[in-house]
Amino acid sequence: MASIDALPARPAAAVASRAGVCLWLLAVAGLVFVMVLVGGATRLTESGLSITQWKPVTGVLPPLSATDWRAAFDSYRQIPQYAAQNADMTLDGFKTIFWWEWSHRLLARIVGLVYIVPALWFWARGAFAGALGRRVALMTGLLALEPIVGWWMVSSGLADRVEVAQERLALHLLIAAGVFGTAIYAAVGLGAAGRPREAATRGFSVAAAAFALVVFVQLGLGALVAGLRAGRIYDTWPLMGERFVPGEAFASARAPLDDAATAQFDHRLVAYAVLAFALAQAVAAGRSGLPGLRRRTVALAAVAALQVALGVATLLLAVPIPLALAHQATALILFGLACAHWSATDPRA
């Protein structure tokens, strides 16, 4: 099948099709952004285990009667989290946490619908050839994997734990971030197709890719901090208590995954690396004489600085939910900007 860029006989139609695919990719990225934030709120409100079954089709409907609500609440009362943390919870209290988790799952279904239907239409028109086809294939695989990993994550908290396994939480977030970043990368590359690019050196392209990767890793470390509730310890900065490296950190081979102090230290350290990297990119771009490159790297440095400030404030103020969500939202914005910068700098995009 011909790609969008290989329709010389109908250039106007090709441009219109390219614009449609670009808007679709950005819409998918926007919905994933919202879904991740609702997922973050679900985690912060301890709501993620309120629905104890995975019903991909019928689960779209919430309880519709008093009997249905009582049955859902009874299912929740069978898991360890209820006995350990919410033994005094009323049905009204259960409804509050239920709606968070249900909303998160509903958004996941909406993302799937918004992705699949236009994708089939564009595919039938031969829009997904070459590099774009490979990126869409990657997104498709990640989106297919996401609900499976999501249920694997939830199931980890239904028997022997009072919360989901933090490494599964991190993987769940990273898959969503992968879809988000790939959609933005592809959309920016598609929007720039046929237009002259700034003559950035290969070094800037490599640096842009590396920066996006470091931010991606930082997202995973942030998920480990959330899963271990590591933001609720060592609420001091710049030191952790009275030391830069807490004494109990790195006590075992699995400490980066299992130990809250280690997770917080790793997250802090990589945050400094992200900010330093962003500032170095901005300084180098300022000397390049390329205005587009300079604007993008300055924006990345500004958002990275804001993200560090939000992280410090979230820690010092004992993780208030609005501030924690702002921290998560800014992290995704930074990653999205990093992927856009990478795509704009990469001549292969």
From TrEMBL:
Q: Does the keyword Transmembrane helix apply?
A: yes
Membrane topology classification: Multi-pass membrane protein
Q: Which catalysed reactions does the entry list for this protein?
A: Fe(II)-heme o + 2 A + H2O = Fe(II)-heme a + 2 AH2
Q: Which domain of life is it from?
A: Bacteria
Q: Which GO terms describe its cellular component?
A: plasma membrane
Record-stated family = Belongs to the COX15/CtaA family. Type 2 subfamily.
Tell me the protein's name: Heme A synthase
Q: Which gene encodes it?
A: ctaA
